[in-house]
């Protein structure tokens, strides 16, 4: 193994998304440094973190005891504390999960049981109570659950607050427009070839999103990420919806279903759906691909919100995100993966939803493992 002179930093974090920035803060506030956060884009939070629904999840859906379940519940509590203390825009709206037909009511019971075993707070409520919370619910809704800890957050504001806090310790530095092309294990650490030149770190954290498998491969780990596109449509006109509204998940579906999400400025949008993309092709963000789904979204919106609130021209296309999944279509759902290989290098793989919510919990886990 090649040897090197003195390292440039104690830890290099590749990727300045919400998880990478949370890890930087978690390490820095524990006294570790110097830390370099290397970001290929011109600023933090420009990748996967920039294209999510900004929903704070309560942990209802994930397998009890899984990393997703544990980190979502812990991360949600930590996130609400963080945004309140740091002045990041947010709203704890709560969420209604509803059955749009009677044969799905059993799925609500299954979901409530799963949430309880995961440590999430959820309550079966009467339709009368549901309509107190959301007066415009359509008459077609047959049953509902109430998740009081769900809400929305300014995702970019959150990412920004994390990296500002990390840099504020004096032990972390964000290096933007710094693409990492190669990673090599050397005696005493890792040598990175970057667009700014070579850099040597004692330890390495690979939080590069869709770029993480390529870097992991250079250190002997083989993983494939399967891109899952989710499109959104905005409601042009709508009642004053005040809560997140989700349909209960259909049995066997890999998706939560098209749901109503809220914006901090009061606007509303529907999505995301789930469309598998070719893992060997460049990621496709083409708006035309999403605009072609208008009829399908219109039908989903009417089933969820009622046709009286969704007329023929109610929706306008509003962009998409792409989630990095560890398994492809037809396979069982996968957990977040965090692994160390070789010693001193940690890789975060398949950090999709609820990654925004779970970021501070994942950061704590990685920081404790690293130190």
TrEMBL record:
The UniProt keywords, alphabetically, are: FAD, Flavoprotein, Oxidoreductase
Q: What is this protein called?
A: FAD dependent oxidoreductase domain-containing protein
Species, as recorded? Plesiocystis pacifica SIR-1
What is the superkingdom listed in this entry's lineage? Bacteria
Q: Which family does it belong to?
A: Belongs to the L2HGDH family.
Q: Which Pfam families match?
A: DAO
One molecular function GO term is: (S)-2-hydroxyglutarate dehydrogenase activity
Residue ranges of the FAD dependent oxidoreductase domain?
Answer: 11-368
Recorded hits in SUPFAM superfamilies, A to Z, give: FAD/NAD(P)-binding domain
What are the names of the required cofactors? FAD
Kindly give the PANTHER family that the UniProt entry links to this protein: L-2-HYDROXYGLUTARATE DEHYDROGENASE, MITOCHONDRIAL (PTHR43104:SF4)
């Amino acid at each position: 193994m090649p040897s090197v002179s003195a390292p440039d930093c104690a830890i290099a974090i590749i990727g300045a998304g919400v998880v990478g920035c949370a890890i930087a803060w978690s390490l820095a506030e524990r006294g570790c440094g110097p830390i370099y956060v290397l970001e290929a884009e011109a600023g933090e939070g420009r990748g996967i973190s920039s294209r999510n629904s900004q929903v704070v999840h309560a942990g209802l859906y994930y397998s009890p005891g899984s990393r997703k379940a544990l980190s979502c519940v812990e991360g949600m509590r930590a996130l609400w504390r963080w945004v309140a203390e740091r002045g990041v825009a947010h709203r704890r709206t709560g969420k209604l999960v509803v059955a749009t037909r009677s044969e799905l009511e059993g799925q609500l019971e299954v979901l409530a049981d799963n949430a309880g075993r995961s440590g999430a707070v959820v309550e079966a409520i009467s339709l009368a109570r549901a309509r107190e919370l959301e007066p415009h619910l359509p008459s077609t809704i047959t049953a509902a659950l109430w998740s009081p800890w769900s809400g929305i957050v300014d995702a970019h504001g959150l990412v920004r607050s994390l990296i500002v806090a990390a840099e504020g310790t004096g032990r972390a530095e964000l290096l933007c427009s710094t693409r990492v092309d190669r990673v090599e294990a050397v005696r005493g650490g890792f040598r990175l070839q970057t667009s700014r030149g070579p850099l040597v770190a004692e330890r390495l954290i690979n939080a590069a999103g869709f770029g993480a498998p390529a870097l992991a491969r250079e250190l002997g780990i083989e993983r494939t990420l399967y891109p899952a596109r989710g499109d959104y449509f905005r409601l042009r006109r709508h009642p004053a919806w005040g809560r997140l509204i989700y349909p209960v998940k259909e049995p066997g579906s890999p998706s939560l279903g098209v749901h109503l999400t809220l914006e901090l400025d009061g606007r509303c949008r529907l999505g995301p759906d789930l469309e598998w993309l070719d893992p060997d092709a460049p990621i496709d963000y083409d708006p035309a691909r999403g605009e072609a789904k208008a009829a399908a979204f219109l039908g989903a919106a009417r089933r969820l919100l009622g046709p009286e609130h969704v007329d023929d021209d109610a929706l306008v296309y509003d962009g998409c995100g792409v989630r990095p999944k560890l398994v492809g279509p037809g396979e069982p759902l996968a957990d977040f993966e965090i692994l160390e290989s070789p010693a001193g290098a940690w890789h975060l793989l398949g950090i999709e939803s609820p990654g925004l919510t779970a970021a501070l919990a994942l950061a704590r886990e990685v920081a404790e493992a690293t130190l």
